[in-house]
Each structure stands twice: as structure tokens, then as C-alpha cells.
Amino acid sequence: MDLKSIAVKMAYLRSEGCYMRKRWFMSGLIGCFLTVFGATTGVFATEEAPVVLTITLPQAESGDTAVIALSEQDLRAFPAISFETSTIWTSGVQRFTGVPLLALLEHFKIEARELQMQAVNDYSITMPVDGITAGAPIIAYERNGKPMKLRDNGPLWLIYNYDANADYRTETVYSRSIWQLDRMAIIR
Questions:
Q1: In terms of residue numbers, what domain contains 158?
Q2: Rounded to two decimals, what is the model's pTM?
Q3: Measured distance CA(183)–CA(27) in Å, rounded
């Protein structure tokens, strides 16, 4: 695929205003780029189960980058945690359900010093791994029993149980509570 055909495709997607088509196209483009430039790609979700979270991690032995692409169904396969908490962004107490970040890191045997978390709108934060516990934060995929849509801070929200621990009610933790999460990069 040459640059002109990519530009034409992007113009078409922009004119259609269809977020999911853009996302699928960009996911495919990124996958091709990583494959061409020596990256090791992980499992990619299917059309029925689109990618909602992409994890990239450096491979020390080869210098390549491994990519783990997860669908919402993949995340739901992990043991879930639910809790009720108020947030500074929502009205009243909300019930969040999701996978503990620590469980995800342990499952994929990811060893890191820090994580760079990035949202759909490119907001990003870097957080130390040593502050992650078995119950906090979680990557929430449901709020009040329903999947979160993009316009409702979803589909994924890195969230803490703010009401359970005063240590979670700080500007630092609030800044790490990234909604519309879609990318995570491992920093070793």
C-alpha cells in the first residue's frame, strides 16, 4: 500500500466520520508497520471482538517490540473485581467492574519499572509499577453494570476505589485515572 492510497483511505474515513473504521484501519496499519520493521506481534482480536487495549513491551534479547492486543472479551476472561466509589468526574457513587492491572501484568509475565498509559485522545501518563496492588487500580470495562461507551469515558477506565483509601484521593492518583484507555507501553 503506497502513501497516496493510505491518504485516500484516511480522507474517506474522515469524510464518513466513522471512528471504528478509522480505528480498524489504523490498527491494521500499525500491525503492518510493526511486522515490516521487525516487531513481534501478539494476538489480534477479531472483527467480532475488536481490540480495546494494546500493550507494547520491549524484548531485551532481540531488541524487538512485542505487541499484545486484547479485546473486551479477552479482558472479561480474567477474574473481575467490582467496587462502588465516588469519583471527582461523576455524580454520586458508581459501580465499576474490571480486571486488576496487577493480574494482567502477572498473567503476561510483564516485568516493568513503569507503565506509560495512553488514551484515545492521546492523553498519557507514566506510573510506577511499585504502586500497583492486587486490588488497585483496575482496568474497568463496566460502569453501573453496563459496558462504557467512548463518550462515557470508556471503553476502558483505569480507576481506583477512591472511597476505600484516602491515599487514592490525591492529585497524583487522580492524574493516573485515565479514561478512554487504549494503549499501555512497558518501560523496563
A1: 39-187
A2: 0.74
A3: 12
